[in-house]
Amino acid sequence: MDPLDIARWQFGITTVYHFLLVPLTLGLGPVVVLFQTMYVRTGNERYLRMTKFWGKLFLVNFILGVATGLVQEFQFGMAWSAYSRFVGDVFGAPLAMEGLLAFFVESTFLGLWIFGWGRLPKRIHLATLYAAVIGSWLSAFFIIVANSWMQHPVGVKLVNGRPQLVDIWAVLTNNTALAAYSHTLVGSLSVAGGFLLGISWYHLWRRRHDGIDTVGADKRVIVGEAPAIRGRDAADHRVWLTSLRIGAVVAIVGFGLVAVTGDLQGKLMFQQQPMKMAAAEAACQTGTGFSVLSIGDVGSRDCKNVVGVIEIPGLLSFLANGNFTTTVTGVNDLLPQYQQKYGTTVPNDTAIYGAAAGTPIQYVPIMAVTYWAFRLMILFGALAAFAAVVALWLTRKGTVPRSKWIMRLALLGILSPFAASATGWVFTELGRQPFVVAPNPTPGGIDGVFMFTAAAVSPGTTSGELLFSLISLGLVYLALLVVEVALLVKYVRGGIASAMPELGAPDEPDADDSSGHDVLAFAY
Question: In 3D, which of 432, 428, 430, 431 has the Cα closest to residue 451?
Answer without folding.
Answer: 432
